[in-house]
């Protein structure tokens, strides 16, 4: 099949403003959108810039806006787009460095703000810190995050105010807040009780729909809100 690609292009070092370039490529319905980008870069226009690393939905580096929806380009197939006209844009709400590459630093700043590491200053046991299957299950879903930013950059609250910590950072906080081995839940809940914390979430659900790992993000945010309100992580 023939696919018509319309790709956002912007090189701030040369261009006064962004524009779109159109490319027509031959594709199989089972090709990934990443395959089409690779084709254009390798055969048509080597200046096209985008991030990718693993190409298998693991590294989280190729999240982008495809026909208005955030996807990992390496996970979405041409047949899943539902049209042979495919518009590809960079993630919204983050500064464009070049073409489809955005500045992820503000995103990672929010991530770092929630203390994304296990805190436990008790004397370590001689073997590992044990945890029951039920205790592990409590935060299993939020361990799946690959930090692709598809959620935060599809959130209208984040578009409205980039200081909002965003769903990805809350997912990471949730992963530690509900980990029975961690001892810093109250510190994280205090951080998220800030004016730019969890209460900026108005349960819009775009984040959950965008997550390539199918993490129940809105549910996780609700659990963090409840922990703040009740002062308990039980
Ligand atoms: Fe990506 Fe999902 Fe993690 Fe958000 S929660 S950064 S969408 S993997
Ligand atoms: Fe935004 Fe998701 Fe909340 S889209 S408003 S973080 S439910
Ligand atoms: Fe790694 Fe797509 S390239 S997730």
Annotation keywords:
234 residues, alpha+beta, Ubiquitin-like (UB roll), Fumarate Reductase Iron-sulfur Protein, Chain B, domain 2, 2 domains, 9 helices, 15% strand, binds iron/sulfur cluster, binds FE3-S4 cluster, binds FE2/S2 (inorganic) cluster
Architecture per CATH nomenclature, i.e. the level-2 architecture of the largest domain: Orthogonal Bundle
- Structure classification: alpha+beta
CATH topology of the largest domain: Fumarate Reductase Iron-sulfur Protein, Chain B, domain 2
CATH homology-level superfamily of the largest domain: Alpha-helical ferredoxin
Tally of helical runs: 9
Uncertain segments of ≥5 residues (pLDDT<50)?
A: none
Instruction: Going across the biggest sheet, name each strand in turn.
Output: 2-1-5-3-4
Instruction: Characterize the largest beta sheet: strand count, sense, and whether it forms a barrel.
Output: 5 strands, mixed
Proportion in β-strands: 5-15%
Terminal residue distance = 54 Å
Give me the Rg, rounded: 20 Å
CATH class of the largest domain equals Mainly Alpha
What general form does the structure show?
elongated
Whole-number mean pLDDT: 97
Helicity level, as a percent range?
A: 25-40%
Q: What pattern of helices and strands is seen along the backbone?
A: EEHEEHEEEHHHHHHH
- The figure for the number of domains is 2
């Amino acid at each position: 099949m023939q696919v018509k690609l319309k790709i956002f292009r912007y090189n701030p070092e040369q261009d006064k403003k962004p524009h779109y370039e159109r490319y027509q490529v031959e594709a199989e319905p089972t090709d990934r959108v990443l395959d089409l980008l690779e084709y254009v870069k390798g055969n048509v226009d080597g200046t096209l810039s985008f991030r990718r690393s693993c190409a298998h939905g693991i590294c989280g580096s190729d999240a982008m806006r495809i026909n208005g929806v955030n996807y990992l380009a390496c996970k979405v197939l041409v047949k899943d787009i539902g049209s042979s006209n495919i518009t590809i844009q960079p993630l919204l709400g983050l500064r464009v460095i070049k073409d489809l590459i955005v500045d992820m630093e503000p995103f990672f700043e929010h991530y770092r703000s929630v203390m994304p590491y296990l805190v436990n200053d008790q004397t370590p046991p001689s073997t590992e810190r044990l945890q029951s299957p039920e205790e592990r299950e409590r935060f299993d879903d939020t361990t799946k995050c690959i930090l692709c930013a598809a959620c935060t950059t599809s959130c209208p609250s984040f578009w409205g105010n980039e200081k909002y910590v965003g769903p990805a950072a809350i997912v990471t906080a949730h992963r530690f807040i509900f980990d029975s081995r961690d001892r810093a839940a109250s510190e994280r809940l205090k951080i998220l009780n800030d004016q730019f914390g969890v209460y900026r979430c108005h349960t819009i659900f775009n984040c959950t729909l965008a997550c390539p790992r199918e993490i129940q993000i809105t549910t996780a945010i609700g659990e963090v809100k409840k922990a703040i309100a009740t002062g308990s992580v039980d």
